[in-house]
Specification:
- The structure holds 2 protein chains of 2 kinds.
- Chain A is mostly helical.
- Chain A is built from 7 helices and no strands.
- The longest helix of chain A has 25 residues.
- Chain B is an alpha+beta fold.
- Chain B has 8 helices and 12 strands.
- In chain B, strands 1-12-3-4-5-2 form a 6-stranded antiparallel beta sheet, with no helix packed on it. A 6-stranded antiparallel barrel of chain B has the order 6-7-8-11-10-9.
- The chains are: A mainly alpha, B alpha+beta.
- At the A-B interface, helix 1, helix 4 and helix 5 of A face helix 1, helix 2 and helix 3 of B.
């Protein structure tokens, strides 16, 4: 059991670090609004696939890292990621038997909820982002979900 | 396998809820403490040192590519570049000569008026790191931090003019908020006539706006805006932008004025961090002086009989004349 956990944590940490790097990777300004929230996708994936390995801890601490890297109020992404990870863990048994399309739709709901929490914290801390392009990221995220699932699945099986 | 996992994980659902609540409360606590009290500065700085490798790792391929491109430029390109730079330097030196003369003159005049001289002196140069911060805020990350003495609120310039100010300082890096950020406002005055107002960011790097000008205000397309120094955050007299579009609707009481920023907000890589001289805020009083020429005269009666006689004679003309000269320099 211990060994199994250990085997599973390395790909979790690596995929989370890659997602963090992707979150700040410079993109042309036109594409910037379309950047999906890679870290949320990764956290959702691990919450569904191996909830025992500590998806919530991963969500909280990688969210904290994202706060620091992104330079927003400390705890914002940590809060949003924790809640989304908990929700995804709760849904995981249903999600596993869904078709790919339904999975993507569910992931879209999760991503939209994530953006909403961020939006809410932004507003509550006094620097609201009144910009509709924020809601593009969940669309792109849901669209690339099958791709990400395949990639991470292959890494996990290795 | 599946059955085992199901029983096991369903047994942990209550644990999940508990941990979820715990982590969420922790995160909420962090948000509140970070927002309300500034006690997290040290933790943040520590975490930022941990995050620094990620930022460097992301930035390094781009820097490597830049370095590679620079090292394989042809001799011809370098020569044309060199020629161009030499020409620019000649021009700059020529202008600088005049500038020094003007500065000396300005110092003399200021000394005459018992005013604090000088604008600012110390600069350090920081380089923008190739890291995208939040897509919806106009901010950049610069590779100078608390270690180099950078502080929050410090003015940041580039070769063209005012770039922004420091919004947050970490140990090794700092975050600069651009003048074009919607949350940023900077006190400016029109160089031609000394009219003071405030330039506010729009979220668009190629545009600022002047939302507080009445329709009757004396503005024209092409007017240069410089920092007024009021408020003390920015040094006086640096270019902020030129007026690009003016829309005056007679039905409205305020004009709709767009400004093109003087700094290359989307192109600059090197930024100057400025340290104001202690007491350098005082020159900000200079533009305000003509509004109260009568107040200026009684405070300096000891300056001699010549001054009071000169002051009322040309207070209205003196001001437009002075910035115009700065403009030429």
């Amino acid at each position: 059991m211990m060994r199994e956990d250990k085997v599973r944590r390395a790909p979790m940490a690596i995929s989370a670090s890659v997602a963090l790097a992707l979150a700040v990777l410079p993109l042309p300004a036109a594409l910037d609004a379309f950047r999906p929230d890679f870290l949320v996708l990764v956290v959702i994936y691990w919450s569904i696939e191996s909830p025992r390995a500590g998806g919530l801890g991963l969500a909280f601490f990688s969210g904290l890292a994202l706060d620091v890297i992104n330079g927003v109020v400390l705890g914002q992404h940590a809060l949003a990621l924790t809640l989304i990870a908990a929700w995804a863990t709760n849904l995981r048994l249903r999600l596993r038997v869904f078709s790919m399309l339904s999975q993507s739709l569910t992931v879209f709901a999760l991503l939209a909820a994530y953006q909403f929490i961020l939006f809410w914290v932004d507003g509550a801390t006094g620097n609201p982002v009144t910009n509709f392009s924020r809601w593009l990221a969940p669309l792109v995220g849901a669209a690339i979900w099958p791709l990400l699932m395949g990639t991470l699945g292959r890494i996990r099986e290795r | 396998m599946v059955a085992f996992r199901n029983t096991d994980t369903s047994g942990r659902t209550s644990g999940l809820l508990l941990r979820c609540v715990l982590y969420s409360l922790l995160a909420l606590g962090l948000i509140i403490v970070d927002k309300r009290y500034d006690h997290l500065g040290k933790i943040r700085r520590f975490l930022s040192v941990v995050a620094y490798p990620v930022q460097v790792a992301v930035a390094s391929p781009f820097e490597g590519w830049n370095w590679f491109r620079e090292s394989v430029t042809t001799r011809d390109a370098l020569r044309t570049d060199n020629d161009k730079l030499k020409a620019e330097l000649r021009l700059a030196q020529f202008r600088l000569q005049r500038y020094e003369a003007l500065e000396a003159e300005s110092q003399r005049l200021r000394a005459l008026r018992d005013n604090t001289a000088g604008v600012s002196d110390r600069f350090i140069v920081g380089e923008i790191m190739d890291v995208d911060l939040d897509a919806f805020r106009e901010r950049v990350l610069v590779d100078k931090g608390a270690r180099d003495g950078v502080f929050v609120g410090q003015a940041v310039l580039d070769a063209g003019g005012v770039f922004g100010q420091v919004a947050r300082v970490e140990q090794l890096t700092s975050e600069v908020i651009l003048v074009s950020d919607p949350a940023h406002a900077i006190p400016v005055q029109i160089n031609r006539n000394g009219l003071r107002t405030i330039a506010v960011g729009t979220g668009d790097m190629s545009r600022l706006k002047l939302p507080y000008l009445p329709t009757s205000a004396d503005v024209a397309v092409g007017d240069l805006l410089v920092t007024s120094g009021l408020g003390g955050g920015f040094p006086t007299g640096y270019p902020v932008g030129t007026i690009a579009v003016i829309k005056k609707d007679p039905a409205q009481s305020l004009a709709d004025v767009d400004v093109r920023p003087a700094a290359a907000l989307d192109r600059s890589r090197e930024l100057l961090f400025v340290w104001l001289k202690p007491g350098a805020v005082a020159p900000a009083a200079a533009p305000a002086a003509p509004l109260a020429p009568a107040a200026g005269a009684p405070t300096a009666p000891g300056a001699g009989p010549a001054k009071p006689s000169a002051a009322p004679a040309a207070p209205a003309k003196a001001l437009p004349a002075k910035p115009a000269r700065e403009n030429g320099g």
